[in-house]
Amino acid sequence: MKLYYAPGACSLAVHIGLHEVGARFQAVAVDLATHSIAGKGDYFDVSPRGYVPLLEFDDGSRHTEAAALLQYVADLDPTHALIGAPGSSRRLLVIEWLSFVSTELHRMFSPWLWHKETAESTLGTVREKLSARFAELDALLSDREYLAGDYSVADAYAFTIISWATYLSLPLTPYGHLQAYLRRVAARPAVQAALNAEKRGR
Predict the structure, then answer these.
(1) The pTM is what?
(2) Which of 106, 148, 150, 169 has the fewest Cβ atoms surrounding its Cβ within 10 A?
(3) pLDDT tens digits, residue range 75-87?
């Protein structure tokens, strides 16, 4: 199995998940600025959409979309510890949070805040919406350590996306519980393993 990723991109969540479940995989760095694969080829030949993450299986099939891939990766662990057993209330809750991160956080950050040509009025609206979501998460995390109770793949995804706030100069100082949550997730060995691997792959 291969994971195509770009350092610091949303693919980090899947990278974390693969380390969490102890999967055997090859990590392939993609330069999204040039759409090249570690300088060895055109990434569009692998992924016509040109974005990461992408998982390539041993049968040659290729799959994208972070929220979907995280569900697949979580199920590589037969205990389903990172997502919950099929049909369980925990699984529903984890998938609910995966969907929340995808639609309420990921799609707010990207593409709007990453593009210099985005109108200031749009930037203001996006920042307001993200502030409201950060406040919501801060309140939630005042009495629990992780989004769905126990740690899950939704936390790997949330950690990845919310961490973009640092690069985009969005202040997290008003959200003490959210900051503590990011530190908790960052301290996990699998998260550190993925982060270190991506630093080496730059």
Answers:
(1) 0.95
(2) 169
(3) 999 999 999 999 9
